[in-house]
Amino acid sequence: MKYIWLTLLLICFDLWGASPPQRKVMYLYTYHYMPPYVINSSEKIGLLYDIEQFFNTHQQTYQFSVSYIPRKRLNYLLNSDQFEGMVIGVNPIWFQDVKKTKYLWSEAFINDQDEIISHSNNPIEFSSKEALIGKSIGGISGFRYHTVDTLVADGLMTRIDTANESQLINMLLKKRFDCAIVSRATTIYYQQLLNADTPIYFSSKPHDTFTRHIFAPKQLQAEFETVISLVKQLNADPAWQNKMQQYQTYLLPETPLPNSGSGQATP
To answer: Do you know which SUPFAM superfamilies this protein is assigned to (predicted)?
Structure first.
């Protein structure tokens, strides 16, 4: 009997000392290193890190991790079928997958738009592309903007590139160009950071509107089933809904994909 109890005690000690099953690391890649999506990567602050944390606390199989990847590198890996992982915060249009047949796509979790912004002392209303003729516009180096790039190519307006959104907005406030294109959530973030009365005018018509999703190559079908479920849970989470209200990126009733591509279509 003594030996039976000793055996049971040893088994219990083994169970107590056993480490939990190790999760499989699953990277959520992004090339959108801009607030509020990524505010501080070293401290994991930003909306994408909020999603990472939500995913990791609502399941036990995978360890999700947000990681930066340049768009050109992502394109190369996708085109050569070498990409392993998922991409977060993107739209099917930007990857020539409007019908969602090339990759696996989650439902949308952010409703965003690229704004035409200008200084309040010289407001520009983007009623049509003709409103931009003769103007100078700021953009992000490497990003393409369907309406603007056509006008620039025809010599009808001037484009001035900046390295990031912070520089873009600061140069606009210094009136280095007439207007700029920037994500609505990013503009609101900087407005809140600088001053609620920052003299920025939003055109009533944006450059374009789009939703943000997660996608993965089809070989990750099993792993992506977990993501589909997690995104549904995320969208139903009151804390997430409050953040979307803060940046005015809450989801409206689902509508067909817009015909125009995003300004970040081909960084």
So the answer is: Periplasmic binding protein-like II (SSF53850)
